[in-house]
Protein: Phospholipid scramblase
Organism: Didymodactylos carnosus
Amino acid sequence: MFQNIVTVQPPPTVWMTKPPNGNALSYLQDLDSLLAKQVVSLTQMITGFDTQIKFGIFNSSGQQVFYAFEESDTCERMCCGKQRGFVLHIVDNTNQEIIRIRRDFKCFSGSCFGWFACCNACIHEVIVESPPGVVIGTVRQKCSFCRPHFDLKDATGNKILSIIGPYCVCDGPYCCCCENKFTLFGSDDVKEIGAIHKKYAGFINEAFTGAELFTVQFPVNMDMKMKAVAIGALFLIDFVYFVHAPTRGGYI
């Protein structure tokens, strides 16, 4: 009776080939968009406890460009949730670390409301390095009252880009019609040059796994270092607005 059972194997992961004679960030040179898809943690689904996040990062052709994984303290994950400090390692298919994103724990950074960002202890911020140990930029929350604002700065602290989010950030299994668009602007906050979208991942994923799905678009000719900083902004936005712990049989 078991002779007709067919086992379907998932398709093998196809990795993007590293451009020849390029530096570590050369993967980003000819890209104008990326898809970041969270890898579901069975432990988190069963226990309801926050685990270290993992993401596959893909280009528009479906090739995997990077793999991102979090390094953080267990106690901070359990007690501090999304305001925890972390180091996010972004590696290629040879396990070479291409980008490192660092965020320090701040006692009062739990709120996502921008008006608290006037105080340094409340500001959401990440530092982006490439290669690890070499700072290429920062993403820093800006004081605001209605919509989320973030400044993207280069290694010298000069503002190069900015991000302005929506008036209302929606999340959950019933938010299929919401557009969580965080618009990427030039330094003048006027010219739209790209965006970070939190995509609806489907009712099952949103309700039971907590798996997130993001896209980021930027000009193809944008400086590769600032593309990496934009990736840092994507993960900071994820932690500020969308990180939560799923529970058994339900959703928080």
Q: What stands out?
A: The chain is about 15% helix and 30% strand. The domain at 30-242 is CATH 2.40.160.200 (Porin).
